[in-house]
Amino acid sequence: MSDAAGLPDEVTAARRGLERVLAEHGHPTAGVAAGTGKPSVALVGAPGRGRRALAAALLDLPADGARDRARLAAPDPDVPWLAELDLLLPARAPDGAWLAGTASALVVVAGAGAPLDRDELEHLADAAGTVDTVTFALVGTEAHRGWRTVLDADRELVAEHVARLGRAAWFPVSPVLAAAARGTGTAGEELRRRAGIAPLQRHLHHLVARRRRMLDEANGLRRALTAVRALGPAHDPDDLRARRAALEAARAGLRREHHVRWRSGIAAARVAVLDDLGRRVRALAAHHRDRIERAGRSELDRLGADLARDLEQVADAVVAGLGDRLRALVVGTLADLLSPDDLAEVRIPVPTPRPELPDDGPRPTDRMLVVAGASSGLGLSRLALLPLLAVPVAPVVGAALVPVSVGLGLGAAGWLARVRRRAADRAHARAWLAEALGQARTDLERVLSEALIVAEREITLALDRALDERARRLDGELNALSPGTGSGVRAAAAVARAETALDRLAAARDDFPGTAPATAPRDLPSTT
Amino acid sequence: MGRWAQDTAQACRALAPSVGLPIADALDAIAARAVATPAIVVTGPVSSGKSTLVNALVGRRVAPTGAGECTRLTARYVRGPVDRLDVVLADGSRRPLPLAEGGRVPAAVGDRLGVDPADVDHLLVSLTSDALDGLTVVDTPGAGSARRPRGPARGSTDAAESALVVLPPTARPDEIAGFAGAARHGPAGVVAVLGRADTVGSEPDAAGVAEVLSRRLGDRLGPVTPVVGLLAETATTGALRTADLAALRVLAADPGVDGALLDPELFVTAPLSADPATRTRLLELLDRRGIALALALLRERPDAGVGDVCAALLAASGLDRVVERLRVEVRGRADLLAARAAERRVAALADAERAAVRAERRRAPGREAGPDLTRLTDLVEDLRARPLHLDLALVEAATRHRSGALALPDELAGELDLLVAPGPLPARLGVPPTELAGHAARRAAAWRAVATWGTPPAQADVADAVHRGWARVWGELTG
HSE (CB half, 13 Å, CA atoms) of A228? Predict the structure, then answer.
């Protein structure tokens, strides 16, 4: 007893140490699950091992008494050994892992027919990382004569996979025999003895009853220890190298993935915007052709001006559509790389204006020319980018449209006048319309393509900048991984301290005053 | 040897001269294996009763059996003029080793030979057993053992054309990936059994467990037959002696024996009339189920002899059902299975070559791939285009349906069974031979309609296979 005097302080200190290491690595600390009510024992095992049958046998219920229930309490006067604890039958995780939940201790149900297989041992190792106290039940001794061989093999395997459980207690039991002996009174005593349920009940009682606090402490410490171990041994160079390689791969993959996404996005935008333009121009052509058919001479005179106005609207709409599309694309591409604040800051630098339009010089009067232009000295291709440049990228609200003017070249007006002089032939008007629209469409397509090329260049650069930033952060993480840092040493010390505390806890658990040593079941050699 | 296996072997041999040497040798080996004696690999988790069943099938207690993990090495049991054991090492060399007492394969083979156990690839056991005529049996270590790396054990990779899968009552679908050889390749050529049916309760209990297993695993393994390996082994190997029968007779008269049979150790320690050593021996030979059976028989017919008891044990073991399934589903389809296995091996060869070409290109970019890969891929395509795949599809669908894993409308299931069953079609169908072509064309059209219109995918696949089956019948009749 005196030996266990300083134990609570030691355990608390060890847990604090582990929590400090976890906090340093930015992991939340679960702390000790403050259990309330009775302590609980979870029965875990591979599917089909008979957890429910064992639970029923332990609580002296009918063979199917544990069906569809996740928590079982002993019917009080009948099973005094288990009156102070609950049995849990937790569901397995979708990948078959054993979930211990809030259990104070585990009973692992193993089959007597075959040694534990690899999956079972892996699940056991995982479960033992969250619960400190583990006991084993070998189920089916009535059906498998060779259970002793299997038991030896199991002990050996467990010792290899989870070294600290190498000396855990094993209880060969037979729920089938227990069910057969049920209600037989003293006549079934021999069967009941062979069923081996009573030693397991006794063991669970000594192990768990009135020990909730101690077990919870041990489990909290065990969980923290597992979490710290999962951080990776900070001083193992092989592990360090592996993590560095993974981070570098993530960095290369990051760039490739975003570029692929961005490229396909811009290709889709190109197709969509050209399709939009073609649709609008075709609609315009149909409208005006219709007008020519019905128009009088005076109306034909206005054709040129009307067409210019309509084309201007089309250009506005198409450019606005492209702006929206590009904004959405940029936001979509950069959103998961940048914080919302950074995203709002992203601007594509305003291109320096350069003369791009042909001079308004004299032209041969018989050549059709549709000139798309604006007065500010920026070409239309630059203008197309303006909606993108003018507003912050992130809050995509109210596309601020810059007025775009589409002017019909002077040559066109002259040509039209010449046409009118020649009897205002409808056929000529139709020919002019077709040619003018064709020219305007080609021009606008060129303008849009140039805008897309510029946008692609500028946004790719922005993307690269963002990716570089992210890569720098990854580099920072890589540097933090360098060996021999103070945090690694502290972690190792905390782990060592926790292990000592857990060892002492286990020792205290096994020699608690008033606790008989774990009873050797049947004719086994000592099981402790 | 069957037509498709011959066809495969010829195709492989025809290609061999025009490809590089290592591939040519591999193709020759594949051709030789396609027409060699087919093999069945016995696979399943640790301690499911594989070796016991092997002993029962060959009628000899030759494979080591017992609780825990007994079989650590793959063993090929072949028909031979004398009983003999060779240890095949990883480098392909063979070392002879005498069989242990009672004709058993000795334990710790590596130590006896003075070689590292890791260097042993497999054991080659020649036996004079008739059961091995025309079918080599390959016994493998248990899958999922924590003692070995994941995946099939060495010496058992694609070692056979068919598989006998021995399952424990708790088998799960995700375990199948760890099984050896043909068991991973669909239900055709797979005979699945519940190997220790006596450990899950009474006979109806075992049948129920087998049915659940069938439904759970039938998609991959087909129906599951319950079998009591130990009883089959004892009955077929002649291990039961007159002295054992006398002890059983004494026990039959003891009123306390039935209660003691609830637990094996209770049976040994309870105050009964036979001495404990004999009772232990009886347990080892018969276990509780066999003893109960023998006692019941002796109480009914006190004059029954060893032969009678063995016959009763054999009948109760269910081995005859397994042997019958092996006859119909493995020996009867040896040609199809050999062709399919050879095809799989060629495909694996092509995959390996493709990987090699890729690795080469990574080392030296710009280099053109040799023509070998193209030729191999062409061969794979040619092999896969053969009509034997229709037979396989029909067999697989019928097997899945029988396992209960695939629900089919009665009509479709009936047509499927009709097309899969052996023998001349007109007789089975009850249609005059002159009208068969027309019947086949109508059925083909009807099932195509079912396959294309809104049938659930799993059933549509089966309907499509049945459609192609009838279309083939029609094509053969009308030329």
Answer: 30
Question: Residue B72: helix, strand or coil by DSSP?
Answer: coil
State which amino acid sits at residue A340. P
Q: Which residues from chain A sit within 8 angstroms of residue B270, using beta carbons? A: 190
- Global confidence as pTM: 0.69
Kindly list the residues from chain B whose CB atom is less than 8 angstroms away from the CB atom of residue A142.
262-264
B429's tokens: 């169908």
Nearest chain A residue to B47 by CA: give it: A114
Mark yes or no for CB contact B265/A180 under 8 Å.
no
| CB B4 within 8 Å of CB B312 | no
| Angle made by CA atoms A509, A515, A516, in degrees to the nearest 5 | 120
Of A528 and B325, the structure prediction assigns the larger pLDDT to B325
Beta-carbon separation of A145 and B263 below 8 A:
no
Q: Are A41 and A49 in contact (CB under 8 A)?
A: no
Ramachandran angles phi, psi of A461, nearest 5°: -65, -45
Q: How far apart are CA B159 and CA A463, in angstroms?
A: 54
Cβ pair B263:A149 closer than 8 A: no
Nearest CA in chain B to A96: B174
Smallest CA–CA separation between A48 and chain B, in Å? 5
CA B69/CA A118 separation, integer angstroms: 13
Contacts of A456 (CB under 8 A, 6+ apart): A266
What pLDDT, in 10s, does the model give residues B247-277? 999 999 988 888 888 888 889 988 888 889 9
- Measured at the alpha carbon of residue A128, what is the angle toward residues A125 and A130, in degrees to the nearest 5? 125
**CA-to-CA distance for B327 and B336, rounded, in angstroms?**
14
Q: What is the pLDDT of residues B357-395, one digit of tens each?
A: 888 888 877 666 678 888 999 999 999 888 888 888 999
Q: Is residue B247 within 8 Å of B280, Cβ to Cβ?
A: no
CA–CA gap between residue A145 and residue A180 (Å, rounded): 18
CA distance B327 to B477: 30
Whether residues A111 and B170 touch (CB distance < 8 A) is answered with yes
The reported pLDDT for the residue numbered B79 is 93
Give chain A positions within 8 Å (CB) of B153. Answer: none
**What is the number of H-type helices and E-type strands within chain A?**
16, 8
Q: Which helix (H) or strand (E) holds B342?
A: helix B334-363
CATH class of this structure's domain B39-228: alpha beta
CB spacing of B266 vs A141 below 8 angstroms: no
Distance from CA of A487 to the nearest CA of B (A): 36
With beta carbons under 8 A apart, name residues in chain B contacting A114. 45-48, 68-69, 142, 168
Name the closest residue on chain B to residue A122, using Cα atoms: B146
Q: Give residues with Cβ within 8 angstroms of A119, minimum separation 6.
A: A46, A96, B144
Q: CA–CA distance from B403 to each of B209, B399, B400 (Å)?
A: 13, 6, 5
Place of tokens 């993590």: A243
Closest CA to B281 of A392, A145, A337: A145
End-to-end alpha carbon distance in chain B? 26
DSSP string, A401-443: PPP--EEE-HHHHHHHHHHHHTTT-HHHHHHHHHHHHHHHHHH
- Each domain of chain B, given as residue ranges in start order, spans 3-36+333-384, 39-228, 240-317, 409-478
